[in-house]
Amino acid sequence: MAWCGVWSRDHNNVRYSELLPRLAAVDKYYVHLSQWWPLRGVQRRIWQPLRVRFLARRYSTLLCTAWWQARLFSGRVVIDLDDPVFSAREIAALGEGNVACVVVTTERVRARLREAGLRTPIEVIPQGVATDRIDAQRVREIREGWRQPGVEVIAGLHQPHFELARELPDRNLARMYAVDRLLEAFAKVVQEESQARLCLVGRPSAGVEAFAASHAWLRLTGYVPHEQVLNYVSAFDIGLFPREVDAGGWGSIKLLEYMACGVPVVGTRVNEMEEVLLAKAGVRAENWDDFALWVKRLCREDPLRMAFGECGRAYASEHSWAAVAEQYQRKLVEVAGSVQRGSEVDLVAHR
Questions:
Q1: pLDDT of residue 351
Q2: Per-residue pLDDT averaged across 75-94, rounded?
Q3: CA–CA separation, 116 and 126 (whole Å)
Q4: Buried b (16+ CB within 10 A) or exposed e, 231-268
Q5: CA distance 244 to 294
Q6: Residues 6 or more apart from 288 whose CB is under 8 A from it?
């Protein structure tokens, strides 16, 4: 059994970064493309599809993390659908005759695919979290660098990068990644809760850096490798989920990480927050004014923060990446039959 995909030496899909090394039965082919974007685009369109066709000569089963690969492979296929868009092309690819199983992260996604007419077997294998990476000493250092103990309350958000809406040319991208609405809401928080601080863990744009320079309540860390993110999340007092676009019920690794670190969550009205509500680990705000009100309340009420945090920690304790990988491994063996221990190969498409 094989997997093949484009792989960055900087930042990759978190689910696959965590799962692939733990799937012992899968041979992994990591494709490294040029950093020069014009050449990278050509390589992505030509080199990777050729590699998938080549793997069909050697392997009977392919694990796909890109659904379009299924049509290029002549054998059995398992498709992992981490972030579905529910388009007609996607649904058609998932229903190809060689697709033995589609793996999704939540029951809601499975239900939507069934409603769209998909008849392929669907397995729910959730997201996970790697709490064994939390370094208590590093967490203390981060906390001490951020605040004076007992004085400031840190609300935080982590993602690879942060921009303002005017810096993103695409409106949909702006709704997904821009932090304008979050900054507006937090400005209302600090008007009443002067001890509140907002920390953005990720690479800031020039616009975000300029905003931080004139607002002392905003802290920026710069880019943090995902292996270190939980140390920063553990230093939060409140975890924020300010998403404006409902992704349709995907499983959110970010929310699971907040809960695993015992951090209460304040989120917007999106379906991903249902897992937090199920765990009783936070609140889903009705609008941005409500969002600011909940952050203010949690800044003031230590017992409520602790209660949400403990519920989240208990829920996330059952979702380790090791347990998720074990479940995944059983499904792959079921589909492919007996398999040997896999290997890892780096393929460089450029010099």
A1: 38
A2: 95
A3: 21
A4: bbbbbbbbbbbbbbeebbbbbbbbbbbbbbbbbbbbbb
A5: 17
A6: 181, 184, 185, 268
What are the residue ranges of CATH 3.40.50.2000 in the chain? 2-128+320-348, 131-316
| C-alpha to C-alpha distance for 1 and 3, rounded to whole angstroms | 7
At 153, the amino acid letter reads: V
The fold for domain 2-128+320-348 equals Rossmann fold (3.40.50)
Say which amino acid occupies 328: Y
The packing angle between helices 180-192 and 288-300, to 10°, is 40
> What does the alpha-carbon distance between residue 59 and residue 43 come to, in Å, rounded to a whole number?
23
**Unique residue bearing structure tokens 């009783």:** 280
222: phi > 0 → left, psi -120 to 50 → alpha, else beta; which?
left
pLDDT-based confidence at residue 50 (cuts at 50, 70, 90):
confident
Mean pLDDT of the chain, nearest integer: 90
Q: What type of residue sits at position 191? A: Q
Distances from the Cα of 208 to the Cα of 108, 183, 185, 200, 214, angstroms: 35, 10, 15, 10, 10
The two three-digit tokens of residue 174, written as one number: 């702006």
Return the CATH number of the domain spanning residue range 131-316.
3.40.50.2000
Interval 99-108 mean pLDDT: 96
Buried b (16+ CB within 10 A) or exposed e, 160-176: eebbbeebbeeeeebee
Note every long-range contact of 139-144, with CB atoms under 8 Å and residues 24 or more positions apart, other chains counting: 139/231, 139/234, 139/235, 142/231, 142/232, 142/234, 142/235, 143/235
Beta carbons within 8 Å of 85's beta carbon, 6+ residues apart: none
What band does 32 get if pLDDT is binned at 50, 70 and 90?
Answer: confident
Reported pTM: 0.89
Q: Tell whether the model's pLDDT for residue 342 goes beyond 90.
A: no
- Helix residue ranges per DSSP H, the chain: 14-19, 37-55, 88-94, 107-115, 136-146, 171-177, 180-192, 206-213, 226-233, 253-260, 274-279, 288-300, 302-316, 321-336
Mean pLDDT of 116-125: 97
CA 151 to chain centre: 31
Please say whether the beta carbons of 271 and 249 come within 8 A.
yes
Is the separation of the CB atoms in 237 and 304 below 8 Å?
Answer: no
